[in-house]
Amino acid sequence: MIAIIAKKEFTECRRDGRFKLAASLMLALLIAASGFGWRNYRDLLNQADIAAEHDYRRFGQQDPKHPHDAAHYGVYAFKTPRPLTIVDGGIEPYVGASILNGAHIQGEVEFPPAQDMSALQRFGDLNPAYAAQTLLPLLVILLGFSAFAGEREQGTLRQLLSLGLRPSVLLWGKAAGIARALLPILLPIAGFGLAAAGYLAPAESRGDELARAGLLVLLYGLYLTLLLFLTLGVSACCRSARTALAVLLVFWGVTVFALPRMLLDVGGYVYPVPSTHRFWVNFMTDLSQSWESAEQTLQKQLLAEYRVERVEDLPFDYTGRSMQAGEEAAWAVCERYDRQRYDIYARQNRLLEWGTLIAPSAGVSLLSMALAGNDPAQHQAFTRQVEHYRRHLNRLLNDYVSSHQTRNANGWDSTLIKADASFFQRVRAFRYRPPDWREALSPYPRAIALLLIWTAAAVVFARYAVSRLSGASA
What pTM was estimated for this model as a whole? Predict the structure, then answer.
């Protein structure tokens, strides 16, 4: 009986002109969004490949100079985008993917694509994930709002129930019929996405990319299942199709647009990020104190160890040791401020996770960004890897100063030290190693759990709503 009802529902959907129009528009929009995503991915990939190679060559071919001058000259590190960036760019357009590795302190991300956006582009960033999160729910609503309410208005629901048909059978049949109508649209997109992810991913990360793509398909499948049963439940509760449509459209507008935006604003208000000016004033104050303390400690230690009164009397040039001590003193300060800043972002994200309780699209958005490799946690992983690279680079340069000491009639003179291109070319190129899908999802256990609870609650609600139907009430 379920198969017969599903077939009848599918046939009605297929003949419905509204469904054909909405499905065609949805398909065109997803294709266009994929095209924009593909262009963005190619731009980022070219930046990471071509610009990174050019900048690394620039650093290796610089004229002979003091290693510390070379540290200030710097070399850029670029984040290689994942193929799933085509689906969901996440925060990437706003935070950028390149960092200058220089001397003394951790570099900031530079040149975010949002800087080059026109005023019109700032109204919205179209990508397949955004289209799926905002418009696929609308398609499900248009397909299902009249499933029960429409039949009630036509009088056919009373006839079906009077024949002894169990309401739960009717529910499963209608759900299967609507799902079958959606499959010809969604399955090719999912299949093409999986194939593209496998084809574009590097060999060493292909397995992880396919796992992430498969989980993205499951995530959006779960979201549509939730919305489908919620729509059928509302349709079973309402006396008319018009009322069911109005209720569902309000739910869609509030949970997809209004509540996520409100949660972002509340997160920014409850966990405010310090202003850039205040951040740098505090950071530089602590950094200066740390440098001064490290310098005094090192001098005291060396003077005591070599039993001399002045650093000029040491049996070696003090400069290289001093520069490395300053670098290491800055590490703790950089780590503390970096942790403080990302702790604030993590708290804001956690609030958004709990927001899944009132707006499931908030959880879907967070998990989608994480699986695409473009959420705040994976951006932090990138900046940490760059910082480790910068420390290695500066240690190498400072060790060169310590091991190539020069002396003239006036004593040690580190300004005479020059490193040439053969030394600079020994610096290895930076290569970003993204976390695997398990690490990517680990910051979001609450969003996963709440989405599963939402789906289970939607099924229970739909079953309860249809269980109240009877020949008399219909």
Answer: 0.89
